[in-house]
Amino acid sequence: MPTDIAAAAEALLQARKSGVWLDALPEGARPQTLEEAAAIQRLVAEARGPVGGWKVGAANPQATPGGAPLNAADLQMTPGPLPASRFNVIGVEAEIAYLLGRDLPPRDAPYTREEVLDAVESLHPVIELVDTRFKRLKSTDPLSHTADQVNHGALVIGPALADWRGIDPVNQPVRLSFDGKTVLEQVGGNTAGDPVRLLQWLADTGARAYGGLSAGMVITTGSCTGLLMIEPGTRVLAEFPGLGSVETAVD
């Protein structure tokens, strides 16, 4: 019997509306493949409004990337706190994001590295707030969590760096602070390695079902810090020397 993609999407949407978190997706509606998880993502994203960006990552520099569309409603471009009431759990990851200045539509020939880089308008420090529509992170099968926008809660986007070509994301220093206290400081840290291949994969494959990538989209390219959990009321500062900083709080 085929997986009930529509039932899975409806369960995730209802959990978002009601705040009644799921033990698991309904029987018969749990994705069995990455393609099914992506189909559920798409139904949820379409129901929630315009897609304003993507998250993309990989387990290691050789692994096939994966990602999820990010609804514009979950992107915060201006400073200010986020209400704790919108989250189930609150995880934090400091990341580097790319803002596109031109479209990358689907096509037969793969995009080259330079074509993708030429489409980038600016680089941004970002904080991804990690959340789940299940009762807790890692509480059900991995493909169900993938279907749930890969545990996305919100993306707080820091100031643009227009002169970004000199930035080396693989060797970029990062410092993460909670309430003024440094909790992590290191160089690099993104398991995917070079993020440009992630952008290429997204343009060639990941975003194809959505009509490709569009100017104005923000693409965040994986955690530089790993996942750290916080409590409501925590002020979070992510600093990327030479790139910029971004700050938020969940109150």
TrEMBL record:
One Pfam family linked to the record: FAA_hydrolase
Domain Fumarylacetoacetase-like C-terminal: 83-250
UniProt keyword annotations, A-Z: Hydrolase, Lyase
GO molecular function, one term: hydrolase activity
Annotated SUPFAM superfamilies: FAH
Name listed for the protein in its UniProt record: Fumarylacetoacetate hydrolase family protein
